[in-house]
Amino acid sequence: MCLALPCRIVELRPDERALIDVAGVGKEVSLALVEDVAVGDYVIVHVGYALTRLDPEEAEKTLALFAELGEAVLREAGVAGGAIQ
């Protein structure tokens, strides 16, 4: 199964690279497959490559769904507030 995440570009770097924000964690990715991106843009990232730009509203909706899914998984596992019940 493959998973591509919407991530916000926080810094453009040399050699078609960028620093992105992944849930508060910075990660460097390649921009070789996308054109005309700027700081603040959202991109879909898979295995270290930005694949395409994404509308900010769609990115926020998708990120909210991922957060909901994560909370549901933790509830199902009996984890609340970071502790197993």
Total strand segments: 7
- SSE class: alpha+beta
- How many whole angstroms does the radius of gyration measure? 15 Å
Mean of residue pLDDT values: 87
Helix content: 25-40%
For the biggest sheet, the summary is: 5 strands, antiparallel
Q: What strand line-up does the widest sheet have?
A: 3-2-1-4-5
Q: What is the ordering of alpha helices and beta strands?
A: EEEEEHEE
Q: In the CATH hierarchy, what is the class?
A: Mainly Beta
What proportion of the residues form beta strands (DSSP E)? 35-45%
Q: Ranges with pLDDT <50 over ≥5 residues?
A: none
In the CATH hierarchy, the third-tier topology is known as: SH3 type barrels
Structurally, the number of domains stands at 1
Pfam family, one: HupF_HypC
GO molecular function: carbon dioxide binding; iron ion binding
Organism: Candidatus Accumulibacter vicinus
Protein name: Hydrogenase isoenzymes formation protein HypC
Please, could you describe this protein's structure?
The chain is an alpha+beta fold. It has one domain (5-76): Roll (SH3 type barrels). It is built from 1 helix and 7 strands; from the N terminus they run βββββαββ. The chain has one helix at residues 56-77, and strands spanning 5-13, 17-22, 25-30, 42-46, 49-54, 79-80, 83-84. The protein has a 5-stranded antiparallel sheet, covered by helices on one side. The mean pLDDT is 87.
